[in-house]
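Predicting holo structure, PRP bound.
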Amino acid sequence: MKTLNIALPKGRLGEKVYAMFEKAGFPCPSIKENNRKLIFENEACGVRYFWVKPSDVAIYVERGAADIGVAGKDILLEYRPDIYELLDLGIGKCRMAVAAKKDFRDDPAATLRVATKFSNIAANHYLSKGRDIDIIHLNGSIELAPILGLSDVIVDIVETGTTLKENDLTVMETVVPISARLIANKASYKFGYREIDKLVHAIAAQTEENK
Ligand code: PRP
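Done. Tokens:
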């Protein structure tokens, strides 16, 4: 059996994801040794895990450096990688939302200035409403933009809502719900579907518990 290369998103979500893979029958105990190693293999189980920056997982999978991986729906919608989306894992749940200062009053006749890390998601959202916008692409600390007058609104991920609250911002509308998805490289799925399907079924049984 060919070793299955699995890209896990580094961080808290990745640890939850690994726990699901472990429960599914693909353990790799050395991964729990808390060091700075990035690759862990369990030859007996035919798996090799590696920790990847969450926003890079889809690139590894699309290009075949990983056969499968776990990426947020936000990344899949923003970058539209050419991969198969196999399963909603029901974890890493949050939403993509439009937020603004509490006293912001929208003027539908004016071009809306939108700050975001998710330019494509924001553009599609407003295109579907026929609204003219000016996208201001930022790489982080998006919440600062409306506070400093750089933008009217932001399109960003809201999980607990704490970041918005602590910066006196409020949600105006939800764009799309987000969660972690199991994804596969197209060629890997074609040639290794037996192994991948086995894993998908074992993990699908657990996603019921996450609903
Ligand atoms: C995201 C997002 C918000 C925050 C929302 O940032 O951009 O800033 O989480 O979470 P909350 O609703 O629970 O407060 P993340 O921590 O992913 O890092 P980033 O700044 O790199 O986007």
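Residues 140, 142, 156-163 surround PRP (CB under 6 Å).
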